[in-house]
Amino acid sequence: MFELDVRSRKPIYEQLTDKIKEMILYSILQPDEQLPSVRTLSAQLTVNPNTIQKAYRELEREGYIYSRAGKGSFVSPAQQGMNAAKRAEVREELLRLMAEAVYLGFTAAEIGELFKLALEKKGEGDQT
């Protein structure tokens, strides 16, 4: 379910939070779906439970998940509305970057190729 790159300079808890966010944004994890327990995920990834707990705390702080005492952590249903806000934010950033790319001389074909590469990369992520 989760793969971490132990050679990455990015901290493990950040890798985990990014992966869970990605799975929520791509609807791999559904609203109110229970996440693996800290102990289970810790054993599965051979990572210190405190690292998993830190990732879950960060996700909860950002509103991606919520926890119930004695029950575990779950995907927040409020994410559906947040997805629209996130899409608008990404759209604005893409427009800014594309304008900069055009200014620097990128052609429509080059920008199209970059889009195709992004789709291929997304396809690779779907296989994990």
TrEMBL record:
Record Pfam families: GntR
Domain HTH gntR-type: from-to ranges: 10-78
InterPro entries reported in the protein's UniProt record: Tscrpt_reg_HTH_GntR, WH-like_DNA-bd_sf, WH_DNA-bd_sf
Keywords annotated in UniProt: DNA-binding, Transcription, Transcription regulation
Keyword Glycoprotein: no
GO molecular function: DNA binding; DNA-binding transcription factor activity
Secretion signal span: none
Protein name: GntR family transcriptional regulator
Organism: Paenibacillus durus
